[in-house]
Amino acid sequence: MIRIDQLWLCTAPVDMRCGAERLLACVVQITGAAHAHYGYLFANSRATRIKLLVHDGFGVWCASRRLNTGRFEWPRGQAPASPLTLTQAQFDALVVGLPWRRLPEMSVIMRA
């Protein structure tokens, strides 16, 4: 499988008609370079579709996912020049539509 050492969430909305080349150009424009074994996540303006771009050291891979109902939890109002890093657990929650930013508080059950 493709090795991904670090995941970056690009917060600015992207046209989902973009292919791997245009997404790669966005990554280079925003971060300065596309690093090998890094994954870059993008979403459309409604956050109903996401794309993952991965540079494997030899080329780029592009995968997409959409939700039939609901939206992906996507940060709004972030500067496009400041992508966020994600942990593997946050990524796993995000791609299935769960509230990935609330993972720490969801992992503890407390008495009210």
Overall description:
By secondary structure, this protein is α+β, with helices and mostly antiparallel strands. About 20% of the residues lie in helices and about 25% in strands. It has three helices and five strands. The protein has a five-stranded mixed β-sheet with strand order 4-3-2-1-5. The radius of gyration is 14 Å and the shape is globular. The termini are far apart. About 20% of the residues are buried.
Structural class: alpha+beta
Report the average pLDDT across residues: 86
Tally the helices: 3
**Rg value:** 14 Å
Short description, anyone?
By secondary structure, the chain is of the alpha+beta class. It has helices spanning 20-31, 88-95, 103-106, and strands at residues 6-9, 38-43, 49-55, 60-66, 84-86.
Descriptive terms for the model:
alpha+beta, five-stranded mixed β-sheet, globular
Topology:
Blueprint: E1 6-9, H1 20-31, E2 38-43, E3 49-55, E4 60-66, E5 84-86, H2 88-95, H3 103-106
Parallel strand pairs: 1-2
Antiparallel strand pairs: 1-5, 2-3, 3-4
